[in-house]
Design brief:
Its main location: membrane. This protein has 552 residues and is of the alpha+beta class. It has three domains: 112 residues, no CATH class; 222 residues, CHASE domain (Beta-Lactamase, 2-Layer Sandwich); 193 residues, 2-Layer Sandwich (Heat Shock Protein 90). Helix content is 45%, strand content 20%. It is built from 13 helices and 20 strands. The chain starts with a helix and ends in a 7-residue tail after the last helix.
Amino acid sequence: MVRLGFIIGFIAFIGVLLSGLAAFRVHDQELTVDGIALARAIDIHASLVQDRLTERELLARVASGLFRAPSVIKANMLQPLRASIYAFKTDFVVASWVARLKPNELDAARTELLSAGFPNPTIRNYDDKPQDTRALNQPIDVLMDVEPRNAETMASAGRALDQHPILGPMLTQAMIEGKPVASDPLPLLRSNGPVGVVLAAPVLQEGATQPAGFVTFSYELAPLMLANDDFSLFSVVLKDPRSPNGELIANDQGIVTARTASQEGPPPSMTRTVTFGGRDWQLGYYAKTNAVKRAEETAAVVAAIGLALTGIVCGLFGYVAYNNLRLSREIQVRIGFERRLTAVIDELNHRVKNILAVIQSIVTRTLRHGSDIDVARELLIGRIHAMSNVVSLLSESQWQGVKLKGLFEARAIPHAERIAVSGPDIAVSARAAQSLSLLFFELASHSDEGLSLVGKHPHIVAHWEVNGEDPDTIFHFRWEEFNTSAATRREDSDFGVILLDRVAPEALGGVSKRYFTDVSYVYELTAPMETVIDMTERDRTEQFSAPPRAGR
C-alpha cells in the first residue's frame, strides 16, 4: 500500500507539474496570438486611414493645380472644378474658394458676391461683425465661393478668415509653405456642427510668388478615422493637437466628442502616426477585450483539466506535447503570413502611389499645357485610358509583365487599325509597360492632326527588334508615319515632347530621337533589354505571389 501510495503520489505530482507547465505555455501562446491579431488589425486600420487622407490631400493638390491665372474677386471660381472635385468621391462637407483681397478690392468683391446671389455680400469678420475696411492696410482672406451651395453654406460667403483663431493660422502656414496644410479639429458650418478638419491648398498665379487665394475642403473627423466598428478588436481615438491629454472619439452614430485621457486609466494598447496636410496625427487604439484576463482564464481551465486527469498523465502529456507543437507551428505560419502580407501591402501601396503620381502628373501637365479645353479633355481621357489599359493587363498577368503587342489594342490607343505592328512579342516589365503605353498613345494621338500629303490618313508602321547577345542585348523601337511632313503634321504638345524626349527614354535607361524624312515622321527609341524586361522586378513579384512556408 505504501508503494502504491507512493506511485499514485508520484503520478499525481507529475500530473500537477505537467498541468502547471501546460497552463503556463497556453497562457503565453494566447497572449502571443492575441497580440499578433490586434497588431495586424491596427496596422490595417492605420494603413486604410492613411490612404483616405492621401486621397483627400491629392484632391486638394489637383484642385489647386487646375486654377489658371485666377481672378481673385470672382464669386464663381469653383464652377469649372465642380465635376472634377465630385469625381474623387471624397465626401467633403464643403469646398470653398478663399481669395486674398487687397483693401481697394473689397468693394468689387462685395458687388461680385451680390451678383452671384449670396444672401449677405457684406465683407465682415469671421464672427459676422462688419469689417472696418478703413483700418485695413494689408490683404485679407475672404470666402468668395462655396460648394455645395445651400442656405447654410452660402450664408458664410463674404467672411474674412484671416483673424479666425484656427483657420487664420492655417491659411498663413499654407501661404508660407506653399503646400496643403490641415487645421486643428473644429466644428464645421456652425458652432454645434460636426467636428472635422479643414485642408487648405494655396493657389499661385502664373509668375507670382504669393498665393492669390486658397482652395479649402472640410471633412468630418469620424469618417476620416474610420471609427468605430462594433465588430473590431479595438476602439480608436485621435489625440487632440490642442490639448496634450485630450482625445477625440466617435460613437456608433459618427458623433465626435472630446474627452480627457485619465492618468489612472489604462494607456492605449498601441499608437500609430498618420500624415495629413503637412502634419502628423496620432491615433490611439484601445483593445476592447482584456487579453491577459482571457489568457489567465484559459490557463486555469487547462490546469483544472490536468488535475482531473492525473490518472492518465501519460496520455495528457502526449496530448499537450502534440498540441504545443501544433500551436507553435500555427503561430510560426501566422507570423510568417502576417509579415508577408505586410510586405505585399507595402508593395501595393508603393505601386498605387506611383500610379497616382503618374496620373497627377498627366492631369497637371495636360491641363497646364492644353490650349483648348476640349482638346485637353480628350487628351486627358485618352492618357488615363492608356494607363487603365496597361494596369488591367498587368493585373491579368499578376504584375509579371505585359506582352508588347498588347499595348497596341484599340481600347488603349487611337487609330490602332492604321498601325502595322511587327516585332518579337516580348514581355516587358510593369514599369516599362506604363512608360511605353503612354508613349504609344502620345504618338498615335498626334498621327491624324494635320492634312496628309495625298489627302489620305497617314499610314503608320511600328516595328521593334532585339539586337546583340546576352547580357548586352539592345531593344530598338521605330515609329514611322507615312503621308505626313513637318508642314502638315501638328507639333507635339509640351507634355508629348517631355514624354517622347525625356520621360520615356530615362525610364528605360535609353535614348530617343525624332525627325522628318521626305515623306514621313520618324520616332526611334533605343534602350538596353535589361531595363525593358527588368527581371529583378519580375523576380520580386514572384516572391510576393509565392505562398508562405511553415516554419520548421
